[in-house]
Specification:
The chain has about 210 residues and is α+β, with helices and mostly antiparallel strands. The protein has two domains: about 40 residues, no CATH class; about 140 residues, Aspartate Aminotransferase, domain 1, CATH 3.90.1150.10. It is built from eight helices and four strands; from the N terminus they run H-H-H-H-E-E-H-E-E-H-H-H. The chain has a four-stranded antiparallel β-sheet with strand order 1-2-4-3. Helix 6 packs antiparallel against helix 7. About 20% of the residues are buried.
Length: about 210
């Protein structure tokens, strides 16, 4: 919903006291300028005014949709994406369904094929940027994100770009991933309601730490 650039920090009195005697060089994590200016109602640096307006609007959007609906939408898009990946004959990086993410899906490339090469083809041809694999999975996975202000049509376009890119990059796969996702999203997949309910249950468990 909101471009990156804001963070929320809760600093205890104990932490503030410790920072006064800390020896490590710091600027960004030095609380003194912020605390001092806050007492007079000012900001010690250039304020991120546009982001604050954006934050206000993002919160309004979340409240308008309803948090339960927001979580359900993310669960639904995640399952549609996983169905597409399976239909392509590719593997999900996450093997444990209890640990599935509802914000992005990491997809393993077939042996001998470079994820970053695929990402470049998709970016060059369709102006769509997929997430990269990091550290030990760099070049081995690409990530499909579906987080924030995202709808069925946007997901369909994203998956279409991936499927076309797989073909253009010569990555072994089966056709039909987009079809599988659309079948689910339009309710034609008999599993859709059941799967969405199960995903909602898992998300609720993660949020409540069960």
């Amino acid at each position: 919903m909101l471009p990156p650039g804001l963070s929320f920090n809760a600093i205890s009195q104990k932490a503030l006291e410790a920072s006064k005697t800390a020896k490590l060089p710091r600027s960004y994590w030095d609380w003194a300028p912020m605390v001092g200016s806050d007492n007079t109602g000012f900001f010690p640096y250039t304020p991120a005014t546009n982001l604050l307006y954006g934050l206000k609007e993002a919160i309004a959007m979340l409240m308008e949709e309803g948090l339960a609906n927001v979580f359900a939408r993310h669960d639904r898009h995640a399952e549609a994406t996983r169905l597409a990946v399976r239909a392509w004959g590719l593997e999900l990086l996450c093997l444990n369904p209890a640990e599935y993410s509802s914000s992005l899906i990491a997809v393993l490339m077939p042996q001998g094929h470079d994820a970053d090469a695929l990402r470049k083809v998709i970016l060059d041809r369709f102006d769509m940027s997929l997430g990269a694999g990091l550290t030990k999975v760099a070049g081995k996975v690409f990530r499909i994100g579906h987080l924030g202000d995202f709808n069925d049509l946007m997901l369909g376009g994203t998956l279409c770009g991936v499927e076309m890119g797989l073909g253009l990059a010569g990555v072994p796969h089966r056709k039909g991933g987009v079809d599988a996702a659309m079948e689910f999203l339009t309710g034609g997949d008999a599993r859709s309601d059941k799967v969405a309910a199960e995903q909602a249950r898992r998300s609720a468990q993660r949020r409540h730490g069960e």
